[in-house]
Amino acid sequence: MTRPPDAPRTIKEIAAVAGVSKSTVSRVLNDTPGVSPKARQLVRTAIEQTGYQPNRAARSLVTRATGSIGLVVSEAQARVFSDPFFASMVRGATEVVRPRGVHLVLMLAEDKRARDQLLDYLRHGHVDGVLFISTHAADPLPRILVAERLPAVLSARPVSPLAISYVDVDSVAGAGLAVDHLVERGRRRIATIAGPQDMPAGQDRLRGWTEALALHGLPHGPELVAYGDFDRGSGARAMEELLGRGIEFDGLFVASDLMALDAVAVLREHGLQVPQDVAVVGFDDSDAATQARPALTTVRQPVEEMAKALTLTLLDRIGDPDAPITSRVFPPKLIRRAST
Amino acid sequence: MTRPPDAPRTIKEIAAVAGVSKSTVSRVLNDTPGVSPKARQLVRTAIEQTGYQPNRAARSLVTRATGSIGLVVSEAQARVFSDPFFASMVRGATEVVRPRGVHLVLMLAEDKRARDQLLDYLRHGHVDGVLFISTHAADPLPRILVAERLPAVLSARPVSPLAISYVDVDSVAGAGLAVDHLVERGRRRIATIAGPQDMPAGQDRLRGWTEALALHGLPHGPELVAYGDFDRGSGARAMEELLGRGIEFDGLFVASDLMALDAVAVLREHGLQVPQDVAVVGFDDSDAATQARPALTTVRQPVEEMAKALTLTLLDRIGDPDAPITSRVFPPKLIRRAST
DNA sequence: GGACGGTCTGGGACCGTTCCCAGCCGTACC
DNA sequence: GGTACGGCTGGGAACGGTCCCAGACCGTCC
Could you check: is the Cβ of residue A35 within 7 Å of any atom of nucleic acid strand C? Predict the structure, then answer.
């Protein structure tokens, strides 16, 4: 396992071992055509035997690329990390990046000062591209990156149209799945706790709820809607508000798991049973949803697959800055559990 | 804000602007003595004006250092990420690393194959050192890194003695704080749900409980102890076990917040009120502890401060491979909430 | 048989730093 | 006044790759 201390460290030494010139070794390393099969094989075995790996710095110096991409976490709070979304995102990105020898550099932009520093940093070519992770709505960073012509991609659809590739889950369809499931379970009056309406995810999930109910010919008036901000705490307030209106409902679709768990707790405090009195469906399929009692029925996004697609898109764009913008919207999946 | 397109990109151009040689510029950049105050100032303003930043690759090539450290996450599950510990760790490390221009490269080692690849990678000098994050007990990676003489530090005390710097919280003292607090609250029969006894944190927290109770002259026999594995789910089993023994207790110290939340749920299912019938103290001060109902009294580790200390230690060691091993144990703090 | 074209090869300039070394200048001392 | 020495400076050789260019070699065609 351990490499002998005199292992070749340079392309020159590999060339000597293989009996070719360093140019040929370089060609083999970069899969450049115009090398005879024999020479190619010679170099390959020499590399194999010696466990040689090219020097990143030397390569960077001439290619002017760093071989690393920034994983920019732009969020005031630590929320992104605790979000299971982040873990899956990292895992997916890592899987794409690892075999290509590209590094994932973690960068935080928690406040304005940090963001300015980061920007200055990115501008100086410390990374070849940026994988942007944010659940935050009005983040100015993506727009700036696009303007700076730095290859970048987004982990969710931006609030306003932007010349940037992103991946997202089909939130409208997801909300539809949730509603269909509740209807199938015999629920006829289905309320919703929606997310903030200045975020695409918030808008789409509400729209999905509305459209699906309309399709079923069921009520979907504003009296059945309360708003939260996706986060813990806001779900409880929204639930109290809904209950305070004195309207009846036997089904509830909540635009995020965290708010849904809040809602379940409040329902319980009011003596209502889940799912007997009110069946509840969340969104995200977070850890908390699995561990809750009762376990939460929810809508899952294929995050890891999305992360892979996103990372590939970024690498494409780095390879060719004029590569077309290719955003992909993934289909969600309903995860049936005890809350419905 | 935007840099003019003709901004100096090399040390040579800065030298021309400042009217000195590139050697002098290099000296100023590296804070090498032997530069006249006048020349130093000249160079400083030239750099200031032009927004010049040295080329990492060129520097790396000659110094044989990469200017980046690996943030190795060695954990089978995504658990590390959802752990608030991770978020604070990253924030602390970032704060230390950013002003020094050092990069944090995120590396996952989820399974054996990934670990082997990672090892190969680390050996080839892709990072200057490793900041190791793991809550897992028997991880072989730290030992290997030490053997490979790669500068590395650990985010917790290793299971068996190892020539490696680490930071940790004083778990014995933390458990003591919890017990003292329960006693102060008038509790006299205090049970515990301990962590796994093959992990330092598990051992120490149990020892702290035992010693504190002994000091107060209160019972601390094995009938008052049940074991879990720190994780969600195991706390419920342990709680059932304690209750099943039919012994009496009015206080409970649980070695992790996640297990504590489980325990509270089980107590409730058995018709017991928290804190009236049983006062409960957890450990970690996780997000979940704040959001629980009732909010959980718990023991907090100063994670961010620990992360900073740890990162500084690593940087020291990178600067001087023979720097002494300096592990630090931080004092915990009791966070009083509604569960006691 | 020579001109030509294609495939493959090797030499060497270059990327932007660091750092060694030689040389400059001014001062202090004999 | 010459020498020694100190602080300060600049030139240039590395570092390990990529890639341009020139040329070797071989087969084909007129």
Answer: yes
